[in-house]
Amino acid sequence: MRPFVSAPFRPTSVPLTRVRRSTVRPTLLLAAVLALVGGLLLAHPGRAGAVADPLISQGRPATSSSVEDATFGPEKAVDGVATTRWASAEGSDPQWITVDLGPSAAVSRVRLVWEVAYARTYRVEISADNVAWTTLASESAGNGGTDDWTGLTGQGRYLRVYGTSRGTPYGYSLYELEVYGTSGGTPPPTGAFTVVAAGDIADRCTASSSSCAHPKTAALAQRLAPAFHLTMGDNQYDDAMLSDFRAYYDKTWGAFKARTRPVPGNHETYDPAGPLAGYKAYFGAIAYPQGKPYYSYDHGNWHFVALDSNSFDDPAQIQWLKDDLARTTKGCVAAYFHHPLYSSGGHGNDPVSRPVWRILHDAKADLVLNGHDHHYERFAPQDPDGRATADGIVEIVGGMGGASPYPIETVQPHSQKRISGPYGVLKLDLTDTTYTWQFVGVDNQVKDSAPTYRCH
């Protein structure tokens, strides 16, 4: 663990459009000069680039190229707390952090407060689509501390700090990324919360075996401290008997069973006592809150639909789903079940899910989470017939919760990222209008960061 200290002061020239703060105490003369300059800037706000413009980045969704570990996520740089920070993985260039400012943001000022791990060279960039970037400011001789870029004139939705070379052997780390300007009347997102999710979890092993993965994913899932946890089926291997749930799953993921919202997988149907017998006996009303192995619930502006994909041919479940979606008044909809419609893994695409996808798509659902194939994969928005479309559903395969990994076999259209091998969980960051996520490994490293999507 590297020391947690502030960056030392390094004297340097100061461009007119940027002010650096040091820890050196100013003399009385310098204080007077600063007061005079401050008065001039207030009298002529154009020189400071709209000093009076409000802070528009606080609480907005943020993503990054990497994190040092899961406790230093990009959201920590825009949470308004001076003691929390984003930190990238160490020893690698380039690295970036991006904040979604909402549509039609006009940026006049960017303030960066660096930790000891600062950028020697970096760019401040803006983009309308998170793809094509325009440089607002660039630094070629950074020395840490605070960089305050004023007098900027940028228009776009995404603001990025793109580090190209580090000032230390560590990574990049920001206590604060503050963006000032106007947001086109779009209020900051509210109702932000985090959900942790995984499927294909508890092999018949315990922490006494170093190769046993589900104790490690459970520790990670608990350490991330979400509002609640989701599971996407195959919670317990091999036959999901009650005795195995008690001997294995309960010793790890069972620690937060009361905060878990599960669905069954195909292995839950193999129980010699009857399909889903051990699953129902173990979870009880948690898995059957409405008397069936499918149910729904709300959190914030999100409506969650938990489905049993073992029985998608059951007319009662299909009718319930249609009625449930027709009743919801929430602005964002997520569904989760075991069998993915699209997958590049060994099981591949499962058409059993297509009729349900069609219902979800017609109801403007946003997100689908699945397991079954033991890897991580994310897809671009698409419709039930596999056509890429902006109003499509985003699908994530998250079967890396503890069962032996499956290789990637046939890459499917619109698959944007595939990772097989590392165990971990999905860390979903949701607001009243947006969602994004990271695949976090049991080594606390972020293996993938997704774009930020707006709910339909």
From TrEMBL:
InterPro entries in alphabetical order: Calcineurin-like_PHP (IPR004843), FA58C (IPR000421), Galactose-bd-like_sf (IPR008979), Metallo-depent_PP-like (IPR029052), PAPs-like (IPR039331)
Gene3D superfamilies for the chain: 3.60.21.10, Galactose-binding domain-like
UniProt-listed PROSITE patterns: FA58C_3
Residue ranges of every copy of the F5/8 type C domain listed in the record: 43-182
Keywords: Signal
Protein name: F5/8 type C domain-containing protein
Organism: Streptomyces gulbargensis
